[in-house]
Design a protein that fits this description.
- The structure is a homodimer.
- By secondary structure, chain A is mostly beta strands.
- Chain A contains 2 helices and 8 strands.
- Chain A has helices at about 55-65, 140-145, and strands at about 35-40, 50-55, 70, 75-80, 90-95, 105-110, 125-130, 135.
- A 4-stranded mixed beta sheet of chain A has the order 2-1-6-5, with helices on one face. Chain A has a two-stranded antiparallel sheet with strand order 3-4.
- The longest helix of chain A is centred in the middle third of the chain and has 10 residues, at about 55-65.
- In chain A, about 45% of the residues are buried.
- Strand 5 (about 90-95) of chain A pairs antiparallel with strand 7 of chain B.
């Protein structure tokens, strides 16, 4: 299963009774060049807050600390969510998808805003149906949270 | 903004009043080598169903038809969700994240199961906290849905 996407029809063999899915599977960091997408969803409301990436080290630290740690592709280092803004994410549950190449975190978002632009969710813009619309309210002004550094 | 991740502190400038976010932004397919992650979420329950990838063509067809179309990385072609199983996704709303490099679809999942393994959601396994557990019920048996082809 490690060589195929979830969309691969070959994966159906994994669902046979002889080869039923195991609950106790780990994220497969051999895929995606060591980076897997991780979705953060509010554990109470179900709102999708953001998507970022994890490498094996970020995932291990997330599990060990209970706080979301991602890997910043632009800064090429671990990104401890909230390290600058204080808006950490307490991780309540972690799910893995059928191919073990996408992670879903159910989190408690401290500060009420996951987005660096000050919105609760990074998905604050609905682009379809038209007209596009900003659908969230700003929780904070980024200029007051992020200092020049 | 196109060169940075959402985690980049440089992005904070985009949130100033002089450069406020625009609602009417399009997915930026110049990033991620032309493939962007797309999260499908049940429009009624808020359940996260799956994550797949879209290229510009898949996105355009999704908007034009109102049915989710992804790009299969393993098969290297458009993947019209439900083309084999019949379990199409009717796309009700589309959201874009702050960096315009992740897509969120709010969908109506026909057939009640998004996962090729027969579960409502591809995230049917909770791996933390331990012990890991399969948390969903199978909606269908994949052997009855996917024919050898």
């Amino acid at each position: 299963m490690s060589e195929t996407d979830s969309e691969s029809v070959d994966d159906k063999s994994a669902a046979s009774e002889e080869n039923a899915p195991e609950a106790d599977v780990a994220p497969d960091f051999s895929r995606g060049e060591g980076l897997l997408p991780a979705i953060a969803q509010d554990v109470r409301t179900g709102k999708v807050l953001m998507l970022a990436y994890m490498n094996a080290e970020a995932y291990a630290e997330t599990v060990a600390t209970g706080h979301a740690v991602y890997y910043s592709r632009s800064r090429r280092r671990l990104w401890r969510k909230g390290e600058e803004s204080g808006n950490i994410q307490r991780v309540r549950e972690i799910y893995i998808d059928c191919d073990a190449d996408t992670i879903l975190l159910k989190v408690e978002q401290i500060g009420g805003a996951a987005c660096h632009e000050g919105y609760e969710s990074c998905f604050f813009r609905r682009i379809e149906p038209r007209p596009a619309k900003i659908v969230d309210q700003r929780i904070f002004d980024p200029r007051n949270v992020y200092r020049n550094s």
